[in-house]
Amino acid sequence: MSRLWTVLTHVHSLAGPVLMLLYPLYASVVAIESPSKVDDEQWLAYWILYSFLTLMEMVLQPILQWVPIWYDVKLVLAAWLVLPWFRGAAFIYERFVREQIKKYGERDQNPSGKSRSKFVDFLVPKKVS
């Protein structure tokens, strides 16, 4: 029984990096090389959400260390975000993130006449002539 438990522990510890990093990295490269934009949206949304999850996990680490099933919950959430049957990352982006960007990323007319978001102007430095 102890050998089985040891094997399961090692499989469980490998499942996180494989599910959260290796597979998404591979799928992102495939998405970049494909002509379809649908898979690009899924993987860009995944990386946005994964970054946010990692940041929140770093901030909340003192609290999360007291939650014994946090790693399992994170693994299930990552599986839902990653697996193509669910397309969870695209769903979360469409349902919640895009609404916030539309809400807080009001459009401005810049001097060149092109409409840009204030949020984009904040992130992208203006060209110096």
Key traits:
two-stranded antiparallel sheet; single chain; 73% helix; 6 helices; 129 residues; mainly alpha
- Global geometry: globular
Largest sheet: 2 strands, antiparallel
Percent in strands? under 5%
The first-to-last residue Cα distance is: 71 Å
Q: Which structural class do the helices and strands define?
A: mainly alpha
The rounded Rg comes to 19 Å
Secondary-structure element series: HHHHHEEH
> Count of DSSP E strands?
2
Please give the order of strands in the largest beta sheet.
Answer: 1-2
The stretches of 5 or more residues where confidence is low (pLDDT under 50) are none
Number of distinct helices: 6
**What portion of residues is helical?**
over 70%
Average pLDDT: 84
Please describe what this structure looks like.
The chain is mainly α and 129 residues long. Helix content is 73%, strand content 5%. The chain is built from six helices and two strands, in the order αααααββα. It has a two-stranded antiparallel sheet with strand order 1-2. The longest helix has 32 residues, at 2-33.
Provide a quick synopsis of the model.
The protein is built from six helices and two strands; from the N terminus they run H-H-H-H-H-E-E-H.
Write the layout of secondary structure elements.
Elements: H1 2-33, H2 38-59, H3 61-64, H4 70-82, H5 88-104, E1 107-109, E2 115-117, H6 118-123
Antiparallel strand pairs: 1-2
